[in-house]
Amino acid sequence: MFPLWKAVLSESFLGYISWCLYHALPPMIYYFPLQTLALTGLEVFAVAFFSPIFLIIGPFWRLANNKYILALLRLTMVGSLASYQAPNASIRLFILAAGVSSSLLVQTVTWWSGNSLQRFVRIWGFMLGKIMLLALRIWYTSLNPVWSSQAANTVILTIGFIAAVERIYSGGDRRKQEANKTGNAVRETVSHPHWLLSGIAFGSLMFLTLWIFGEVSLISRWAVSGHPHTGPDPNPYGGTVLLGLAHGLMLSFWSWSSVTSFAWFLVGLASSAGLLYLHTWSAAIAGNILAVFTMCVWPQLAGRFVSCLHPGKAMSTAMFAYVLELFFCVWCTAYKFVPGGIYFRESSHLLLGFIMLCIGVDFLTGPKKELSSIFEVKSNQKPLFRKSKNYIKLLLWLFVGVGLLGLGLRYKTYQKKLGQGVPKRDFSAMIWPFRFAYDNEGWSNLEGSANLLNQTGADFITIIESDASKPFIGNNDPTMWLGERLGFYTDFGPSTRDHTWGIMALSRYPIVKSTHHLLPSPEGEIAPAISMTVNFTGKLVDFVVAHFGNEEEDLDRKLQAIVVSNLLKTSSKQVVFLGYITSAPGSRDYTELIENGNVQDIDSTDHDRWCSYIMYRGVIRLGYARISHAGLSDSEVQMAKFRIPDHLDSYVDNDRTVTDPSQVPEDIHFNPRFGSYKDGHNYERIHHFHMSTPKYFKRTN
C-alpha cells in the first residue's frame, strides 16, 4: 500500500513541476519582444516544446528508455526550476527551455512504457499536478510559488529532487523486465492508430487548461464588468472554479454512453460560447460549467492519446497544436507587432471554437470509458487499480481543501483591510504603466511594485498594462494581488476576452460605479478606458483613466481622444483624468482633451512628457511629482495631489508654482523617501523624484 501511495504522491509533485515549466516558458519568451515591441528571434526557444519529435527515431527512443538517461532527464527537469535564480533573463530562458524539453521527453517515455498501473498513476499524477498548481497559486494570490521567491523556489526544488530520486530508485524507471519496447506497452491498452487526431485533441486540451484555467481567478476576469455589477470577484468565487475542475475529474470515473457523451459535449460547447459572449454572472456560470467539462474529458482523451501506436508522433503533434494555439493567442492581442497579425486580430472566438471542435471529435469518436478501462488490466492488478483510484480521489480533495482554505483566509484578511481610509479633503492620484509587473531584468516583481505604491501614499492608483491573465504573460492577477496586499478597492477592465492590455484601478476609498470602455481602434490594438466615481467619505469625485494606441496609429489616437474628451465633458463637475496618450503637450490629441474635455493640465509648463498625463476639473491642485522607475518597469510614476473644495461654485485654484516644500503645509508634502527636487532624468537605480519635480502649488497673494 505504502509504495503505491508514494507513487501517486511523487508523480503528482512531478506533474506539478511539469506544469510549472510549461506555464513559465511562454512568458519568458514573450519578455524579450515586450522590451523591443517587435519579434526578437528568441521566439525560437519555443522549439523546446518539440523535443518529443526525436523519439520518432528508433535509436533515440531506445536511448531515452535507458534508465540512466531517463534518470538524467528527470533530474534535468527538476533542476531547471533553479532557472529562477539565474543571473539574467537569457540564461533563465535557456535553462527553462532545457527543462521543458526534458519534461516532455520524460512524459512521453513514461506514459508509453511500463505496466498498466504505472502508466495509469503517471497520467493521473500529471492531472493532479495541475490541481496542486492551482491550490498553491491560491496561497500565493495567483502567483506560482516556485517563481515567486528564492525561498519557495529552493523548497520546491528540494522536494522535486526527492520525488525524482524516489521514482528513479523505486523501480518506476526500471523497466528492463517490463516494457522496454513501445509495442509491449501499447499492447496493454486498447490501441488505435489515429495519432494525428489524438495528438491535436490532446494538445488543444492542454492549451485550453492553460489558457482559461491556468489560475482560478481567470474566469472572473473573463466575465468582469463595471461597478456595482462587476460579476463574481476572483476571491472568493475562484473557489467555484476549483470545485468545478475537481468535480470534472470525479465525473471522469464514470462510463458514458454515446448519447450522453454527445449531450455532454454540446453542454461544453455551449458553455465555451457563454464564457465568450455572456456577461458577469452568466459568463462566470458558463465558465464554471466549462471547467467541469474540461477536466471531465482529460482522463478519456489522455487514455486515448497514450493508446496511439506512435508515441513520438503523437506527442510531437500535441505540442505542435499547443504551440500553434499559444502563438495564435498572442497574435489575437499583440497583432500590431507580429507578421500577419492583422488577419488574426481579436479572433479568440475562432481559437476557442477550433479547440472545442478538436476536443469534441476525439471525445465523441473514442471509447466512452474511464481511464483504467483503457488499459487491459490483469486480474491480479485490479485491487491495486482500485486502491490507486482511492488515493487519487483522496489527494484530489486534499488539494481542493487546501486551496479553499487559502481562499477563505485571504478573503477574511482582505475584508478587514478594506474601508479604513480616513475622512479628508485632500487626496492623491497616480498613474503608472508597469508592464504586467515584469521588471527590466525579466522577473515578475509584484513585491517591489507593492512597496513602491505603498511608499507613494497615493489614494487612487491607475496602472496601465496590467492584464497578466493571458498565458503568454503569466496567467496571474496583479489587480487582485495588489488590492489584497495594499488593502485597496479594485476595478479591472475591460474583460480579458476583449483583447486589451488591461487597466487596473486601486482606490483607498469605495468605488461607487464604473464603466469599462473599448476605445475606437480601427488600425491598432484595442485601447481600453474606465470611467468611475469614488466616494471620498461623502464627497464624490469622478476619474477617467485611459490607455491610447501607439504613436504610429494616428487615426486611432485621434478617435480615442475625441471619445475620451466626451467622457470627461459628460463627467461630474469634479473629475481627474489619468491617461497614457502617446502624444506631446500641445499636440492635437492633448488639445482635444483639454479643450473639448474642459479640463486643465496638472502642470502645463512641463513640456518633457510623452505618454502619461494628469488632468483635472473642479478640484484644487496641490502638488505634482514624477518618480523614476529604477528598473522596476520601463516607465516612471506620475503623481498629483488635490483638494476637494468646500464650495464648488466659488473656489479658486492654486496658480503659483513653488519647489521649496517649506512653503506649503507639511501634510501635503510628497514622501521624502524619494529624495528632493531634481532637474532632469534620474538614472540611478533608486526611485527618486526627477524631471524638475516635485512641485507644489499655492495661490498668488
What would your notes on this structure say?
With 701 residues, the chain is of the alpha+beta class. It contains 20 helices and 14 strands. The protein has helices at 2-36, 58-65, 67-79, 89-111, 116-139, 150-169, 182-187, 195-211, 218-223, 234-251, 258-277, 280-305, 311-333, 348-365, 371-374, 382-417, 446-456, 478-486, 554-569, 588-596, and strands spanning 426-433, 460-464, 489-493, 503-507, 511-519, 527-536, 539-547, 575-580, 600-601, 612-617, 620-627, 637-643, 656-658, 695-698. The chain has an 8-stranded mixed beta sheet, covered by helices on one side. The protein has a 6-stranded mixed beta sheet with strand order 5-6-7-8-10-9, covered by helices on one side. α17 (446-456) crosses α18 (478-486). Residues 175-181 have low confidence and may be disordered.
Q: What sort of overall outline do the alpha carbons produce when their principal axes are compared?
A: elongated
Indicate the mean pLDDT: 92
Alpha-carbon distance between the two ends: 87 Å
Helix content: 40-55%
Low-confidence runs of at least 5 consecutive residues: 175-181
| Cross-sheet strand order for the largest sheet | 3-4-2-1-12-11-14-13
* Number of DSSP-assigned strands: 14
Rg calculated over all Cα atoms: 27 Å
- Strand fraction band? 5-15%
